[in-house]
């Protein structure tokens, strides 16, 4: 009796192993890794003004060192600035320009600019993806009267660009994953 029970258990286990094998020879979908971004540089350019550079650099990623955040100078009041964002992966030698990847994968990315209370400024998108939704590598910033406060730049991977307000820069309904985010202390003088 024990031999029959052992034999039937062995046959069942063998059948189970072979029935679980896959006859599917197709190649699995590739896993798209998120971009490694160590440095984000925002350049603000206005006619007759010196460029203002905002930069965050975190060469050790999730390591113990905090990012180095710099602002090269103050914004002028009542001025239209053209903004550009450059992203680098400086763990590579030479540094990899991630900006090119973001532009190529524009449908899957969007920058959001959040002007904190106290700062008299407004932003607007000047670029878009092939469906007409904003990407945000290029933007305008209009400074108001003298003030100081913060502005946060956030890059989202796979945001819901069709959600309410997202095309206008409202991050609250965007969803997706944050690729990089940095807050800068800015003054308009």
Write a structural description:
This protein has 189 residues and is mainly beta. It contains 2 helices and 10 strands, in the order αβββββαβββββ. Strand 4 and strand 5 (96-97) form a beta hairpin. It is globular. The model is unreliable at 1-23 (pLDDT under 50).
Compact description:
The protein has 189 residues and is mainly β. The chain contains two helices and ten strands.
Summarize the topology.
Blueprint: H1 2-19, E1 39-45, E2 52-57, E3 68-71, E4 80-89, E5 96-97, H2 98-104, E6 109-115, E7 121-125, E8 138-143, E9 147-157, E10 177-188
Antiparallel strand pairs: 1-2, 1-4, 2-3, 4-5, 4-8, 6-9, 7-8, 9-10
Alpha-beta content class: mainly beta
Which percent range fits the helix content? 10-25%
> For this entry, what is the oligomeric state of its chains?
single chain
- What is the global morphology? globular
Largest sheet: 7 strands, antiparallel
Quick tags:
13% helix; 37% strand; 10 strands; mainly beta; 189 residues
